[in-house]
Amino acid sequence: xxxxxxxxxxxxxxxxxxxxxxxxxxxxxxxxxxxxxxxxxxxxxxxxxxxxxxxxxxxxxxxxxxxxxxxxxxxxxxxxxxxxxxxxxxxxxxxxxxxxxxxxxxxxxxxxxxxxxxxxxxxxxxxxxxxxxxxxxxxxxxxxxxxxxxxxxxxxxxxxxxxxxxxxxxxxxxxxxxxxxxxxxxxxxxxxxxxxxxxxxxxxxxxxxxxxxxxxxxxxxxxxxxxxxxxxx
Length: 233
What we know:
Elements: E1 5-16, H1 20-29, E2 36-43, H2 47-51, E3 56-66, H3 70-83, E4 90-101, H4 119-123, E5 132-140, H5 144-153, E6 160-165, E7 173-175, E8 178-180, E9 183-192, H6 193-204, E10 215-222, E11 224-228
Antiparallel strand pairs: 1-3, 1-4, 2-3, 4-11, 5-9, 5-10, 6-9, 7-8
């Protein structure tokens, strides 16, 4: 059984709570094979509301890998958002992925993972000039709200925070024989190219990120950014 890796695209949709599942149904109806939904939150820009601990806005993050069906899936999601703008208000991010393991079973062959040599893998997919980048910042739990405030001052329009955890290491604290791994938070920020340098420079000045294990930040090119339902963020 052969499982070749083929060039693909990753679609990330960030919408309101309880709207990720219906959006996934739209994507599947258009040809997507499936995906993953994670829970996240963003912060209100109203300082008074945040001071009252009422600033959290719950979100859902839908991730799905696509091959040739990517155009149809994106078109279907845009159509659904145009039909019900309040329901699917958010953003959609399309990014190139070098390889996706595609299940194309071949009889009388062993299960292997091979990179298929297509025109896309040999010469590279035609690159579009990216106007935006996805900045991912991973910090210890409890610091994401402060980082969000810092990147907004540096020019970011907002972001999405997701809960995560670190991996177990020999230095982890043991409690009744159970390893207590550090809790983490991931912050996704989509920014225009001209604002990325200022945002990263502001992130570099955060004291906690300078400490070992304090956090990490990296960027990825966004092939296409689509605002769903009239989202201005």
